[in-house]
Amino acid sequence: MKSAVRGIAGLACAGSLVLVAAGCGGGSAKDAKGGTGAKADGKEQSAAVGVVSRAQAAKLIDRYEKVNNRANKNSDPKLLSTVEGGAVFQQSKATFKMQKNWTAKRRAEYREPFTYVDRKYYIPRKGTADWFAMVAYSQGPDGKKGKFPGILVMEKQKGGGWKMVTATYSETKKLPRLAKDKDGFAVPVTNTAKKAGALAPDSLSDSLLDLYTEQVTPEGGFRPSKTTKWISKIPKTQNKLLNPHGAAEFSRGESTHESVYALRTRNGGSLAVFSTEVREHDRGTQLTATIHPSDKMKVYVGETSGAPAFFVDWLHISSAYIRPQGRPHLLGSEYEMTGAAAATDADGNMPGADS
């Protein structure tokens, strides 16, 4: 994972996005020392431990930095897969694919090494989660630190190792204060289908999709923000480009890489990082109309001259603050094209689909 400008679908382009916000630290002092406490006179029980200690978290992030930088330098998804998984790896793989369209200068800038500085770890108590979060700034080889921090989540894999699985950015530096338990551990939302504030974290993906389908009501969805504003412009921009002989429709894509991670806030809400799959359907509205794929789409569909319709898949990774009452705040989002395919017939049927 590395911060990069994300563009919109085959025929349009969107603005750049920024990184996330700072908050309170995670884990207890006992946890920082390694996660276990010594027994006094053989009577005291072991101290509370986190899913990892701070020292362990630091080592995991150090390794991630090192391998990520090597993978970015060589655009090597196989190497990156040893430390990345989930939605963020899908975005990274897509970014590597898109680099064939980049200028030499942009590729060189992306391949410059970086480190995470001013790290703050948010470590849940062992047994309450199999992941931990970090808030940190990205710093380049010139020593210049990013203006906005990022929120990253590292998760334990079935095989026992750890991988970075999601990362997101924010339009604001100000995050809600996160809750801690009696031992100083971050408190995860263990049931993301249940309300943790005014909304269940699992509902955030639907709210983001509503920005594409223009089904947001005054009472529902996200409160207005910079992020909701630019996402809402995407379908309008795409349809304007296709007008008058074509149209774009947006719906939910395959949920393969959708996930949500949430921590409780002190005021009864929650802070969540979540991913959303969005499918774009570009089609001609006249029998003689032909959709011509962009250079980005050609990465997936090849050098085709056009087709009556195309499907384009996008993967968003976003962060949101679910308030105790009222509409949630979409803090930030970034997205990447993860696939494209020409329709199988003039009716715009998707490859491999019955309808």
Structure classification: alpha+beta
Largest sheet: 5 strands, antiparallel
Number of strands: 9
Radius of gyration: 22 Å
H and E order = HHHHHEEEEHHEEEHEE
- Number of separate helices: 8
How far apart the termini lie comes to 36 Å
Shape: globular
Structure description:
This is DUF8094 domain-containing protein. It comes from Streptomyces spirodelae. Keywords: Signal. Helices cover 23% and strands 24% of the residues. It is globular, with a radius of gyration of 22 Å. Mean pLDDT is 84; it is low at 4-45. It is built from 8 helices and 9 strands. Helix 6 (204-213) packs parallel to helix 7 (226-242). It has helices at 29-32, 54-74, 77-80, 86-98, 104-110, 204-213, 226-242, 295-301, and strands spanning 115-122, 131-139, 150-156, 162-168, 246-252, 260-264, 270-284, 309-322, 329-342. Strands 5, 6, 7, 8 and 9 form a 5-stranded antiparallel beta sheet that branches. Strands 1-2-3-4 form a 4-stranded antiparallel beta sheet. The chain is of the alpha+beta class and 355 residues long.
Structural descriptors:
single chain; 355 residues; alpha+beta; 9 strands; globular
List the helices and strands and how they pair.
Elements: H1 29-32, H2 54-74, H3 77-80, H4 86-98, H5 104-110, E1 115-122, E2 131-139, E3 150-156, E4 162-168, H6 204-213, H7 226-242, E5 246-252, E6 260-264, E7 270-284, H8 295-301, E8 309-322, E9 329-342
Antiparallel strand pairs: 1-2, 2-3, 3-4, 5-7, 6-7, 7-8, 8-9
Helix pairs in contact: 6-7
